[in-house]
Amino acid sequence: RNFYYITILRDPVSRYLSEWRHVQRGATWKASLHVCDGRSPTTEELPSCYTGDDWSGCSLQEFMDCPYNLANNRQVRMLSDLSLVGCYNLSVMPEEQRNKVLLDSAKENLKRMAFFGLTEFQRKTQYLFEKTFNMNFISPFTQYNSTRASSVEIDEQTQQHIEALNFLDMELYDYAKDLFLQRYQYMRQKEHQEARRKRQEQRKILRAKQARLREQGENGSSTDYIGNVERW
């Protein structure tokens, strides 16, 4: 079997706010596995941001203040090869080097995926998916601009704080958006070229058919004239 890896990326600020609202309602990731290099992280490597059963009711400020919050740069961490940086052990290498390795790994893995889309470009995502895998969805994708994240009003300072907490995701998203739009434009140009080639081929066939019809008409006229002469 051939397995194809695909993913959907989202604007980092919107994604972060959406996760906060999800956690605020009582969601946890306790059932999620964080196994890396054959083992789970220790509590020292991956401390919890809350005590008790969940973190329901937490404020956005509390959510942003936790230094161990896995919501920070989640997209880069989930797309990168954590074994390159010692998994969740932050003492393996300097922070700046760790961040560069994670970001480069995430970009490379994203580029090598069979397909990826962007939440903010639903129609283009559908178009690229259909062209990539040569299959069509029954109904068109719908672009929902009204989400739980969009309903959260934040000031400019909070916006900048979230961007700073997710600076790796911000850079990954810029890279992904540029690559996504390049692939979209390439696919559209390829489609236009194929349509133009088909039109040229159809015109060529039509001209050949018309030429044959003219030739048959001329031959038919000559035969009729000669036959009439013989009868006369």
Could you characterize the architecture of this molecule?
- The protein has helices spanning 12-24, 60-65, 74-79, 95-112, 122-133, 156-165, 167-231; strands at 6-9, 115-118.
- The chain has 232 residues and is mainly α.
- The protein has one domain.
- It has a two-stranded parallel sheet.
- Helix 4 (95-112) packs parallel to helix 7 and helix 6 (156-165) crosses helix 7 (167-231).
Key structural traits:
EC 2.8.2.-; mainly alpha; glycoprotein; two-stranded parallel ribbon; Heparan-sulfate 6-O-sulfotransferase; 232 residues; 2 strands; Sulfotransferase
Which sequence of SSEs, written as H and E, runs from N to C? EHHHHEHHH
Query: What gap, in angstroms, lies between the N and C termini?
Result: 79 Å
Report the β-strand fraction as a percent range.
under 5%
Mean pLDDT: 91
Report the radius of gyration as a whole number of Å. 30 Å
- Percent of residues in helices comes to 55-70%
From the helix content, strand content and strand pairing, which structural class follows?
mainly alpha
| Helical run tally | 7
Describe the global form: elongated
Major sheet: arrangement of strands: 1-2
Oligomer category: single chain
Q: How many individual domains? A: 1
Tally the beta strands: 2
Major β-sheet annotation: 2 strands, parallel
Low-confidence stretches: none
Write the layout of secondary structure elements.
Layout lengths: L5 E4 L2 H13 L35 H6 L8 H6 L15 H18 L2 E4 L3 H12 L22 H10 L1 H65 L1
Parallel strand pairs: 1-2
